[in-house]
Specification:
Blueprint: E1 6-10, E2 24-27, E3 32-36, E4 43-48, E5 52-56
Antiparallel strand pairs: 1-5, 2-3, 3-4, 4-5
Domain CENP-V/GFA: 9-76
Keywords: Metal-binding, Zinc
Protein name: Gfa-like protein
Length: 88
């Protein structure tokens, strides 16, 4: 999959409430860690040192919620030629 939808939050506004608790992390760069479910290993998102937490859109109960709609595109200069951006 060449794209992913991240939804960013200030770390202070995120509370881990699921059965698995806080995600397991793997340090992926100097400034961020990838987050995974400690029970099944599914990707949850990224926990940055900023402190920002970026969660994958598919992790939400209702990923169609208008409050989760993208506001901008990152790295659009690297998108595949077949990708069509829909700007709102």
């Amino acid at each position: 999959m060449p794209t992913v939808v991240w939804i960013e939050f200030a770390a202070e506004n995120v509370e881990w409430t699921g059965k698995a608790g806080k995600p397991t992390t793997w340090r992926s760069s100097e400034t961020t860690s990838r987050a995974f479910c400690p029970q099944c290993g599914s990707s949850v998102g990224a926990i940055d040192d900023a402190p920002v937490i970026a969660l994958l859109a598919g992790a939400f109960d209702d990923p169609n919620d208008e409050d989760l709609a993208p506001e901008f595109h990152s790295f659009s200069d690297m998108q595949p030629a077949w990708w069509q951006n829909e700007r709102r």
